[in-house]
Design a protein that fits this description.
The complex is a heterodimer of chains A (350) and B (499).
Chain A (H helix, E strand, L loop, with lengths): L7 H14 L3 E4 L14 E4 L6 E5 L4 E5 L4 H10 L2 E2 L13 H7 L6 H4 L2 H4 E7 L5 E5 L11 H5 L8 E8 L1 E2 L3 E8 L2 H12 L5 E6 L3 E8 L1 H11 L2 E3 L3 H6 L12 E5 L12 E5 L4 E5 L4 H10 L3 E5 L11 H14 L15
Parallel strand pairs in A: 1-2
Antiparallel strand pairs in A: 3-4, 4-8, 5-9, 6-7, 6-8, 10-12, 10-13, 11-12, 14-16, 14-17, 15-16
Chain B lengths: L6 H4 L7 H11 L4 E3 L2 H4 L16 E4 L3 H14 L3 E4 L16 E4 L6 E5 L4 E4 L5 H8 L4 E2 L12 H7 L6 H4 L6 E7 L5 E5 L10 H5 L8 E8 L1 E2 L3 E9 L2 H13 L6 E6 H11 L9 E9 L1 H17 L4 E4 L3 H12 L1 H6 L4 E4 L9 H14 L3 E7 L4 E8 L6 H18 L18 H4 L2 H14 L14 H7 L18
Parallel strand pairs in B: 2-4, 3-4
Antiparallel strand pairs in B: 1-2, 5-6, 6-10, 7-11, 8-9, 8-10, 12-14, 12-15, 13-14, 13-17, 16-18, 17-18
Helix pairs in contact in B: 2-4, 9-11, 10-12, 14-15
The chains are: A alpha+beta (350), B alpha+beta (499).
């Protein structure tokens, strides 16, 4: 029996009641990313009732699904047609939904080469703070009519509205995929990655786990084979990338808080106060350490990036410059004047 | 309905003391060039959409960011609208001046501040030309991917404002996918940094929101773009078809085969003949439609893909498939496509370039309808099409000197855009709404959606001083225009009176 259902009317009704009574809503799918951001106190709005793939035509390279659709289901359907979500979003739990994927905006190991979640968002349907269900963007690759509200919603953690439907660009899976492991130091790995980055190599993931550099090559047979010959190393099982993406590697175990540093790609080795693991070819660094937020934020900022604390139930977002925060507040006020959508999840003021 | 700013339906603009403003500007910045004589203002009366012209109140030509900031602060204090302009190549009238507004020309901020090969980015001022970035990056084997046809002249600030595209978008994305960071000034003269050299930034994705916002939310003063390693090789296949349907099917089959070409362009017979007459690119003048398919990347893969694509094209019914023999022929094949607009321009005294997008499966249907509608208006239409990403550029041929023809062309253009919306597409893929498609916005969005757009605008520019009258129509305009329209089966704006 199909679980697919259009429950957008019921979701809209719940939002309208919340607006009427000015009751904050805690928007959630499966809760797989609940550890990101501040906890929200409010009436739960569960999107999982509103599920199902609305349209998918592989030759159009677009899939449209209701927000509560399990990400697993979408990936399975794409896989069958030889396609994929190029940003390889982390699930971080068995029931992760596509709405949560877009609202959280997290991208997997392919990010620096293929783009982020927001890069693949083509359209959304969203319930806004005016109690209306609106549609922005659409199912076409190019669309510059009006403001790009759909991409604004990606990564906004539900603070600007309830996503009810998303249209995503998809791509064919590469013909060849090969993973390599090259034992080398972190410093050497960063230097090599810098050099390779300026060349047309088919690298689609690069991680240093403390002992070795893991590389994934994706493309046609010819380019993957010639890069494999050139780069050397040992061919290894590609299952590593899912373990990395889902934070299941041994590195992620342990009680210390997990920090994510997002840095310019050419950032050299950073002396961080704890164990670190490099992803995204060095542009995303994971840090396990008990040091306090005030000592970690400046390190990331000085390098031209920012740091966020993941997975502790306490969200240490990097501070925003005052002027920027003022416009964030203004935007929140315009789109959610009664502050009912996930208040405080991203920043206390929003 | 006039396409120039109409205070009756676009909103009343504040009265301006022109002389007072000019004196204030000159006093605050003695070294700022301010144009005010009619003969000096005339060159700025339109952008690339030359059918619409308005003489601006004043033109200012800052050379430094601090001057831009002072201009904005002064205008904000005095309640004077500001229209930002880059190279003036935009095709939708996004930089059309206002008689009651200052035209802020950013073209003189044209320095490349940094090319960083290790970090694979370039940091440039907004007046730097698109092509100049790739030229500066070339010694490092890098380039900037988005390449609108006007890349030799258009500036990067305008590219950000319009979210410009080009012929390689399907594989390499639009401007929004290739910009890391922008520095902007709000109408209050407040400086904001959106994005960063890292791959993401904390807070809302305002970089995505500002990209393509058509100068309505802020003025871009610096842009950091991502650079990519240049593909080792690029090859082009040219295929000709006896009917448009076959060409459309071939496009779907190429994608279904798991191949994403660097470029995939289609032209119809009228466009093919126009180009062949003009450029002598070796195009098949008897074909009903033609595809150009560029495959780029590493040598071995490109070789493979060429064979695959050639097989797919043949299977889809291509009459002839030609691989460009050498780089010279590849360049010639592309020269034809890149000169399609001027080539079509030779067929007719005037032409009007449209920019709708559609789901690719609707291609044959839409082209047939365009032809029927063109007949109804007694006009001819040549079609040039970014087939890979569903972005059509129908070129409507007309003669502005014949009474009524411009109006016929505009009406036909509007109908074509509404057809794009009806089949699930959009009124603009890469040229922007600007002034040109302001009415068709009422067909693509309902009143609640437009209200939300106005709310977004109010967060950054509550008094509506930046580029008023562009991009987002007032509800009044839609009520007037919408009298002809039924959106989602409902008459729009039932609460507003109709004139």
């Amino acid at each position: 029996m199909s679980l697919d259902r259009d429950m957008s009317e019921a979701l809209l009704e719940q939002v309208c009641q919340a607006l009427e009574s000015e009751t904050p809503l805690a928007i959630q799918g499966s809760g797989s990313k609940a550890m990101l951001g501040n906890p929200v106190v409010g009436q739960v709005l569960d999107t999982r009732c509103h599920r199902g793939i609305v349209s998918y035509d592989p030759t159009e390279l677009v899939i449209t699904a209701r927000a509560g659709t399990p990400l697993q289901e979408i990936e399975a359907v794409l896989h069958q047609a030889g396609q994929m979500l190029p940003c390889e979003p982390p699930h971080l739990g068995p029931g992760a939904t596509v709405g949560g994927m877009v609202a959280a905006g997290l991208s997997g190991p392919r990010r620096p080469w293929a783009g982020s979640v927001r890069d693949y968002v083509l359209g959304t349907r969203v319930i806004t703070g005016h109690g209306t269900l609106l549609r922005f963007g659409g199912e076409v690759m190019k669309n510059v009519a009006g403001y790009d509200v759909s991409r604004l919603l990606a990564g906004s953690f539900g603070c600007l509205g309830v996503l009810t439907e998303v249209s995503l660009k998809v791509l064919p899976r590469p013909r060849q995929c090969l993973s390599l492991c090259l034992p080398m130091s972190r410093q050497q790995a960063l230097a090599e990655l810098l050099r390779w980055g300026q060349q047309p190599l088919p690298i689609s993931a690069a991680c240093h786990d403390g002992d070795a550099l893991w590389l994934r090559l994706e493309g046609g047979e010819g380019s993957v084979q010639s890069a494999r010959m050139r780069l050397g190393g040992e061919v290894v099982d590609g299952g590593f990338w899912a373990e990395l993406r889902e934070q299941r590697l041994a590195f992620f175990a342990g009680a210390e808080p997990l920090w994510r540093l997002s840095l310019p790609i050419a950032t050299g080795d950073l002396p961080l106060p704890g164990r670190q693991l490099l992803d995204w070819g060095g542009a995303q660094r994971w840090l396990k350490c008990a040091a306090d937020a005030h000592s970690i934020h400046p390190i990331a900022e000085q390098a031209g990036g920012h740091a966020t604390c993941h997975g502790t139930g306490v969200h240490h977002s990097p501070p925003l410059p005052e002027a920027l925060m003022r416009y964030h507040r203004a935007l929140k006020h315009q789109m959610d004047p009664k502050r009912v959508f996930n208040p405080g999840r991203l920043y206390p003021d929003l | 309905m006039t396409m120039l700013y109409d205070e009756r339906i676009d909103g009343v603009l504040p009265a301006v003391d022109r002389e007072g403003l000019r004196q204030a500007l000159t006093q605050a910045m003695p070294d700022l060039q301010v144009l005010h004589r009619e003969e000096d203002l005339t060159p700025y009366e339109c952008d690339g959409l030359s059918a619409y012209r308005t003489l601006p109140l004043l033109v200012v030509l800052p050379e430094r960011t601090d001057q831009v900031q002072t201009v904005l602060s002064l205008c904000h204090q005095r309640n004077v609208p500001v229209v930002a302009r880059g190279a003036g190549t935009g095709l939708s009238g996004g930089a059309l001046p206002l008689a009651k507004g200052v035209l802020l020309v950013m073209a003189r901020l044209n320095r490349i501040l940094e090319v960083n090969p290790q970090g694979r980015f370039a940091r440039v001022q907004p007046g730097v030309r698109n092509l100049a970035i790739s030229q500066a990056a070339a010694p490092h084997g890098l380039y900037y991917a988005p390449d609108p046809s006007s890349q030799i002249a258009c500036s990067i600030g305008g590219n950000v404002a319009e979210n410009a595209g080009g012929v390689h978008c399907l594989k390499y994305g639009l401007t929004v996918h290739n910009v890391l960071k922008v520095e902007i000034l709000t109408i209050e003269g407040e400086h904001l940094t959106l994005g960063s050299e890292a791959l993401d930034s904390p807070g809302f994705d305002l970089l995505a929101l500002f990209t393509g916002s058509e100068g309505m939310l802020g003025v871009v003063t610096e842009v950091t773009v991502r650079l990519l390693p240049k593909p080792q090789v690029a090859r082009v296949l040219l295929a000709s078809f006896e009917c448009v349907e076959d060409a459309g099917r071939a496009v779907a089959h190429i994608i279904a085969a798991g191949i994403i070409p660097g470029g995939l362009e289609m032209m119809d017979n009228l466009a093919i003949r126009a180009v062949e007459d003009f450029i002598h690119a070796g195009y098949p003048v008897v074909a009903a439609a033609m595809l150009l398919c560029e495959l780029d990347g590493v040598e071995a893969d490109v070789q493979d893909d060429c064979e695959r694509v050639a097989a797919v094209l043949a299977q889809a019914g291509a009459r002839e498939v030609r691989l460009a023999r050498d780089e010279a022929e590849r360049v010639r094949f592309w020269a034809g496509r890149k000169n399609a607009f001027p080539a079509v321009g030779r067929l007719s005294p005037d032409y009007y370039c449209m920019d709708g997008t559609i789901p690719r499966r609707q291609l044959a249907h839409v082209l047939k309808r365009i032809e029927e509608m063109a007949c109804e208006h007694g006009l001819r239409v040549a079609n040039v099409f970014h087939a890979g990403d569903g972005n059509m550029h129908p070129l409507i041929l007309f003669d502005a000197n014949l009474p009524g023809e411009l109006e016929q062309a505009e009406t036909l253009g509007g109908r074509i855009l509404e057809l794009c919306v009806a089949v699930g597409g959009s009124i603009t893929g890469e040229h922007g709404v600007g002034r040109e498609k302001i009415n068709q916005m009422c067909a693509q969005f309902n009143s609640d959606e437009l209200r939300l757009f106005h709310a977004v605008k109010a967060a950054f520019d509550p008094r509506g001083l930046l580029n008023p009258g562009k991009n987002i129509p007032t509800l009044h305009r839609c009520a007037e225009f919408g009298a002809l329209h039924v959106h989602h089966g409902q008459l729009p704006f039932p609460q507003l009176e109709r004139f």
